[in-house]
Amino acid sequence: MASVRCVKTIELGSGERLPVLLDETGIPLFEPTLFVLSEVRGRNRSANTIASVLRSVMIFHRFLDLRGIDFDARMRSGRLLSLGEVEDLARHSRLFLTDLGSLSGSSDSTTPKVESFEKVRIEIAQQSCSEVDPDVAATRLRYIRMYIEWLADERCSRYASTEPAAMRLAEASRRTAKAIESRIPHTSGRGPFGQREGVPNEVVDEMLRVVDPHSSNNPWQDEHTRYRNALLVHWLLQLGLRIGEALGVRVSDVAARAKEITIHRRADDPGDPRAYPPQTKTLARVLPCSDALLLETQAYILQYRRAQGSAKQHPFLFVASHTGRPMSLSAVGKMFRALRQRCPGLPGDLSAHLLRHTWNDAFSEKMEAQRIDPEDEQRIRSYLMGWSPTSGTAATYTRRYVRIKAKEASLGLQNQIMGGRGNK
């Protein structure tokens, strides 16, 4: 297998963006390209997901380069990776990509060097203080396992199923996959600490006060920017959208007469001119829109959006000030940085996605007040969030609500116990 250099996204003639893994000469590697086309893109995964898969595959190829492992020869002989090599691969998966490139024998060299295992382990240990989140490492290892299994299956398909070579390789694939599986971090190890939660009501009130276009604390001078940012915050808070979903909404997706907003799944939309198009990771759905939010949206479209540069040349709702181009993800990041700087009372990690967690907390409180059956609540939440009906994702977005309810229950139990003892 050739040495790898980087993952690059190319734009096809249809406008679709396709990430590819390049070798040291700038040519896409055959096996990784075929892998993502058949196993990832073929399942309608987005360009961002394909790029994530290929970065994991790149780590695996760099590991092979560093160890001087000829994986093709290994497969021909019916063996893949030893337990020690899998352990080293797991260590590699925990490193930042920039750190991987600095290791001896990395793919930046045209001739891979074979270093002693001890020297490489020392180099990795020296960088161990800087590691990716365990969840990121787990995702990398899952994709690497998937890629190794695919390589082995593709090679086995060249043989009759009863041939000894095919049987040896199939068994080696199972052993390697099992060894990788056992080294995949199953939790972040943080327990309830440091996990993302929604923000309290008083923080929401302060944020809404600051983003009000008429507020003296509003950090933006341009009138369009003020009204656009206020509308975007209101959309995120009231609809619970991912930021990629909000930035992908078109003007035509807002049905004023029906008072509805349709969230479409337009993966790698060829009509999106942004270099990094926002992605809709969840299912398509139709959301009800309140009168107030609908009026605010219509006012933005008619009074502010239409006056911005090339806004009439594309269908996207939220646009950049002056140029009128579709609003970018980086612009949203700058928007929340400006909010945090202008109002120090806001959380330091305030972001668009934090508002999705906040929506889920408010939804839980609403369902509790209406005494909605838990199963019905799960189905309703899953639909509004764009999750599958059986998804367990809700637990990720209701941490603060659950924590508060757990606190109330615990204190109530403690007071009950102490009250009972006091009566004796």
Structure overview:
By secondary structure, the protein is mostly helical. It has 2 domains: 4-181, no CATH class; 195-424, hpI Integrase, Chain A, CATH 1.10.443.10. Helices cover 53% and strands 6% of the residues. It contains 17 helices and 5 strands. The chain has helices spanning 30-40, 47-67, 71-76, 83-93, 97-101, 117-126, 134-156, 164-181, 201-211, 223-239, 243-248, 291-304, 329-342, 352-369, 374-385, 394-397, 399-422, and strands at 4-11, 17-23, 254-255, 260-263, 285-288. The relative contact order is 0.08.
Q: What's the number of domains? A: 2
Give the tally of β-strands: 5
| Proportion in β-strands | 5-15%
End-to-end separation:
78 Å
- Decide which structural class fits the backbone: mainly alpha
User: Major sheet, described briefly?
Assistant: 3 strands, antiparallel
Secondary-structure element string = EEHHHHHHHHHHHEEEHHHHHH
| Strand order, sheet with most strands | 3-4-5
The CATH architecture designation of the largest domain is Orthogonal Bundle
- Portion in helices: 40-55%
Mean pLDDT: 85
What do we call the CATH homologous superfamily of the largest domain?
Intergrase catalytic core
- Broad CATH class of the largest domain: Mainly Alpha
- Could you tell me the radius of gyration in angstroms? 26 Å
